[in-house]
Amino acid sequence: MLLGEIFELVQLVFVVAFTVFLANCVDYDILFANKFVNHTDSSKVTLPDAFLPVDVCSARIRDNVFVIFIMVISGVFWLHRLIKFIYNVCCYWEIRSFYINALKMSMADLPYFTWQEVQARIIEIQKEHQICIHKKELTELDIYHRILRFKNYMVAMVNKSLLPIRFRLPFLGDSVFYTRGLKYNFELIFFWGPGSLFENEWSLKSEYKRGGNRLELADRLSSRILWIGIANLLLCPVILIWQILYAFFSYTEVIKREPGSLGARCWSLYGRCYLRHFNELDHELMSRLSKGYKASSKYMNCFMSPLLTVVAKNVAFFAGSILAVLIALTIYDEDVLAVEHVLSSITLLGVGITICRSFIPDKHMVFCPEQLLKVILAHIHYMPDHWQGNAHRYETRDEFAQLFQYKAVFILEELLSPVITPFILIFCLRRKSLEIIDFFRNFTVEVVGVGDTCSFAQMDVRQHGHPAWMSAGKTEASIYQQAEDGKTELSLMHFAITNPQWQPPRESTHFISQLKEKVHREATGGQPGNAPENHAFTSTHSLQSESEPRSLIANLLVGPPSLASLHLGREGSIINHLSIGVSEGASALRSLSPLSTSIHMRGSFPSSRLPRPDHPAVAAGRAMAGSGTDARTISSGSSAWEGQLTSMVLSEYASTEMSIHALYMHEMHKQQSRGELSRHTWHRQESDESSESVHDDVEAIRNLPRSNTFPFATTPNQEGAALQSSSQRRYGGTTDSLCGGPRFQRTARMPMGGWSEESQTGRHHEPVPEEGAEDELPPHIHKVT
Amino acid sequence: MNCRSEVLEVSLEGRQVDEALLSLLHTILLHRSTGKFHYKKEGTYSIGTVGTQDTDCDFIDFTFVRVSSDELDRVIRKAVTEFKDALGNSGSDGMGQISLEFYQKKKSRWPFSDECIPWEVWTIKVNVVNLANEQERQICREKVGEKLGEKVINIVEVINRHEYLPKMPTQSEVDNVFDTSLKDVQPYLYKITYQITDSLGTSVSTTMRRLIKDTLAL
């Protein structure tokens, strides 16, 4: 880390110096052999010939005011980075001594420790040294809260569609724009910039916690956003130049060497924010997303457009033929290369052909989008509802591309970001300042020993559960308070599974154990005790293709049997791994329960060791034979065999278990929401200019459960008709004028957060508790101990 | 952050400010002081004795107990007088707060100076009211007396909770935990600061400090 920062400083100096040098001190005429150089001893033109003498060079620089200006700015910036670097060094030193002295981990062993072990040690030393004086014992959740405080807020805001990152553009349709620059600005405005909402790193300013002067605070925030937007606008040219130069220096070499790498995809910043659980550390998120990478690439690649394929093939043919001729000539006599522009045309044609080839799909690819989407879901855990069953459609693929974009698109967005960010800030974010103030006031909870955290991050099913996501009957949340897409429930399960030692609060324990029991029952139901078979094929095949696979889990994984065999044949295929993972996971699940048969487990455990990938069935068979008794999960307490495994293996099992749970929850949600289709599906509007086009009528017509966070394409002819009625309904009966976008209204009638509540939904909802009449009430701080 | 914070609020008349603050501060210090440590050879120590005495208040119907150490009394009186003068001179509506902060020192390497890490902060918010006639003043005396009694009980309750206290130090580290400058009593290291607040609840110095810190954070 330290070295990285040093190199960053060096890079900054290098880029500026190199660019200035290239712009001012090089005589391009000599380089391009347009001018003749007088040489006495040899006739070769050397590089130093092209450099202008130092005095000419410095004179040119001094005369060029623009260059001086740029150099001054970069100098100031570099000094600032240097100071920050020195400060960071001291912080790193402290961290290092904390690890060595308090946690008793030497630097040599550090790479081999997992996060779980570090966490366990911190909890231990809390008991001994009382590093946090407010509580006697720290829990894992406290540690996560402290680390991920601001990230949880961002995840919650994206989940509730509070930030203006989705736009409806005229030609490109729905698109998402969320770049590093925009993210930096958001964090600057909310968390740590001058005049931000947070007083210091751990507590919100007290005036933001009270409802009294929310309008004034919203004004203040709005003007601050304006100033920051203007500052962005002023610095835009400098930042733009920097981005272009940096991208140029970084990626040109990549393009030359491996042009196909730009056609590779990566998880976009928006994707990472959307798919992130509450209380999920960076490395956990990255490992999860990386596991889903292969399946996602396959999914994106399996859509082919025949038209594009034909065109690409032909362009590749023509370019390839010219290239072949040039190469043949060069091989015959290499003086051809000295001819003007030959080398550049060879390079360009090569790049062009590689790009064309990327549009031509693999001949041996199988088109099985639903299957792939299931596998992707098993890893990323979140998916809008309307993708289920529609995996083969282009709309689904395009929406998935918002999460998983081309690297080239990523680079392009980063280049455009300095120009677009100020406008987003000034025009879109300012409108939402009242909602943002309300969000921070309503959803901040003070936790003893931790400070102010986002209340969504408490993962409390009662406060933020969604009835359609297995929390029906348990949740008291109004629509404003529910987390979308089952984030609360899934985050809770994920956290409970990754940190098995954590003791959740009582209702959450109930929820978790209920869910685990259900999953358990399904998993064991699908695999009645088979006799262990020796052949990989038959055993796993029989696992999957019983006459009628009754269990939900088996349902999820079984494709057409031919597909299963196809996947079984391939080494390291994703589905193979997942099915093996399921069988391992199921056996692991069974043996995870602490009960009287735990001794039996322990006895049988050495036989069902970590199965190697090439003997899946043997191990699975053994595991099934070994754990003959059907297990009833009661709770997820630490079980006997965990001590025998290292935490590395544990985390691998944990991810498999989480995948199974996530798939199960999505299935339940699908069934539940299908059952509720007769009711009017409520759709929450985003308050930006694109919200006019999304309607409940269209939903009812479409007859598909819609996720609340993904907008979908509506047919334009229905828009006009539905616009009037839905807008009226949208504002809950108050007859606001239909004209204009949803500017935030300063009336007290407007529900907090600018979101409307449908009166037709059968779902219970209280009027959002914070109305304007609450000016005098005491601050809304919930003490959670 | 890793520091307990307690807030006490009192509404007082002008003449009562001195004594009320003295009483509260002395009460807190009474429970956060020990006798002087005398270290013996094997790393054990013996604690000297500390006496207590009652003090009556002239302008309030209240009596409080404090450590019988004149030095400590002098120090506290000085701080309270400073605060009172600042409050009087400020011209604001008579609102201010005085904080008693208990901290621990952490030795740092050169070039950084020693760090003070607070572990408990008592903030007393003072609101000065002006009363018109003698009768109101009389009522005020009694009321404030009662209020202060309640506050003292509050303080004792908080202290009785047996929450974090710094560990008893070895001889070399005594100065990091205790204030050994006084001759007859040894309270935990403390410092008294005050702030005259304007209506928005901020003060100029904190804003400036925050601005500088924020630009550095960029």
From TrEMBL, chain A:
<dbReference type="GO" id="GO:0031902">
    <property type="term" value="C:late endosome membrane"/>
</dbReference>
<feature type="region of interest" description="Disordered">
    <location>
        <begin position="671"/>
        <end position="785"/>
    </location>
</feature>
<keyword id="KW-0256">Endoplasmic reticulum</keyword>
<dbReference type="GO" id="GO:0005794">
    <property type="term" value="C:Golgi apparatus"/>
</dbReference>
<feature type="compositionally biased region" description="Polar residues">
    <location>
        <begin position="705"/>
        <end position="737"/>
    </location>
</feature>
<feature type="transmembrane region" description="Helical">
    <location>
        <begin position="65"/>
        <end position="83"/>
    </location>
</feature>
<comment type="function">
    <text>Phospholipid scramblase involved in autophagy. Cycles between the preautophagosomal structure/phagophore assembly site (PAS) and the cytoplasmic vesicle pool and supplies membrane for the growing autophagosome. Lipid scramblase activity plays a key role in preautophagosomal structure/phagophore assembly by distributing the phospholipids that arrive through ATG2 from the cytoplasmic to the luminal leaflet of the bilayer, thereby driving autophagosomal membrane expansion.</text>
</comment>
<keyword id="KW-0597">Phosphoprotein</keyword>
<feature type="region of interest" description="Disordered">
    <location>
        <begin position="604"/>
        <end position="637"/>
    </location>
</feature>
<feature type="transmembrane region" description="Helical">
    <location>
        <begin position="225"/>
        <end position="249"/>
    </location>
</feature>
<dbReference type="GO" id="GO:0055038">
    <property type="term" value="C:recycling endosome membrane"/>
</dbReference>
<keyword id="KW-0325">Glycoprotein</keyword>
<protein>
    <recommendedName>
        <fullName>Autophagy-related protein 9</fullName>
    </recommendedName>
</protein>
<keyword id="KW-0832">Ubl conjugation</keyword>
<dbReference type="GO" id="GO:0031966">
    <property type="term" value="C:mitochondrial membrane"/>
</dbReference>
<dbReference type="GO" id="GO:0005789">
    <property type="term" value="C:endoplasmic reticulum membrane"/>
</dbReference>
<dbReference type="GO" id="GO:0034497">
    <property type="term" value="P:protein localization to phagophore assembly site"/>
</dbReference>
<feature type="transmembrane region" description="Helical">
    <location>
        <begin position="307"/>
        <end position="332"/>
    </location>
</feature>
<keyword id="KW-0445">Lipid transport</keyword>
<dbReference type="GO" id="GO:0006869">
    <property type="term" value="P:lipid transport"/>
</dbReference>
<keyword id="KW-0472">Membrane</keyword>
<keyword id="KW-0333">Golgi apparatus</keyword>
Automatic annotation (TrEMBL), chain B:
<dbReference type="GO" id="GO:0000045">
    <property type="term" value="P:autophagosome assembly"/>
</dbReference>
<keyword id="KW-0072">Autophagy</keyword>
<dbReference type="GO" id="GO:0000407">
    <property type="term" value="C:phagophore assembly site"/>
</dbReference>
<dbReference type="GO" id="GO:1990316">
    <property type="term" value="C:Atg1/ULK1 kinase complex"/>
</dbReference>
<dbReference type="GO" id="GO:0019901">
    <property type="term" value="F:protein kinase binding"/>
</dbReference>
<comment type="similarity">
    <text>Belongs to the ATG101 family.</text>
</comment>
<dbReference type="InterPro" id="IPR012445">
    <property type="entry name" value="ATG101"/>
</dbReference>
<dbReference type="Pfam" id="PF07855">
    <property type="entry name" value="ATG101"/>
</dbReference>
<protein>
    <recommendedName>
        <fullName>Autophagy-related protein 101</fullName>
    </recommendedName>
</protein>
